[in-house]
Amino acid sequence: MKQQLKIVVNGEPYDLFVEPKTLLVQVIREMLGLKGTHQACDSSSCAACTVILDGMAVKSCSVLALQANGKEVLTIEGLADGTKLHPIQQAFIDNWAFQCGFCTSGQIMAAKALLDENPNPTREEIQEQMDGHICRCTGYNMINEAIRDAAKRLQSEKSAQSGKGAA
Amino acid sequence: MKEYSIIGKPTPNVDGPAKVTGEAAYTIDMTLPNMLYGKLLRSPYPHANILSIDTSKAEELPGVKAIITGKDTPGGKWGLWRRFRELSDQQALATDKVRFIGDPVAAVAATTEEIAEKALDLIEVEYEPLPAVFDPIEAIKDDAPMVHEDFPSNINATRHIEWGDVDKGFAEADYVREDRFVLEAAHPCAMEVHNSLASYDKGTGRLTVWTSTGSPYFVQQNLAEALKLREGDIRVIKPHVGGHYGGKNSTMPDAVNAAILSMKTGRPVKIVYNRDEEFTTTEHRTAQNMALKIGLKKDGTIVAFEVKTMTNGGAYTGLGATTLYLTGTFITMPYKIPNYRYDGVRTYTNIVWGTSIRGFGAVPAKYCSETQLDRAAKDLGIDPLEIRRKNAVIPGYEAPGQYKFESCGIQPCIEKMAVRVKEKWPKLEKDEGIGYCAFAYMSGGIFNWIDTPYAYSSAHVKVNWDGTVDLYSQAADVGQGHNTVAAMICAEELGIGIEDIRLHMGDTAHAYTDLGAWGSRETLMNGNAIKDAAAQVKQKLIDIARLKLGENIAYDLVAKNKRIFLELRPERGLSYYDLVKDAIRANDGVPLTGTGHYTPHNKGMISPAYGMGIMAMKAKVDRETGHVTVQDVLVVHDSGQIINPLGARGQVEGSIHMGLGYGLCEEMPMDQGMLLNPEFVDYKILRTRDMPEIEILDVPTYEPNGPFGAKEAAEATIAPAAPCVANAVYQATGAEFYSNVLKPEKVLKAIREAEKKQKASKATGK
Amino acid sequence: MAKHYRCPMCRKICAEHLDLARHYLGQTDKKHKEWLKTQGLSYAALIKAQVTEFGNKGYQALADVLKKTAAEVEI
Question: How far is A151 from chain B (nearest CA, A)?
Answer without folding.
Answer: 17
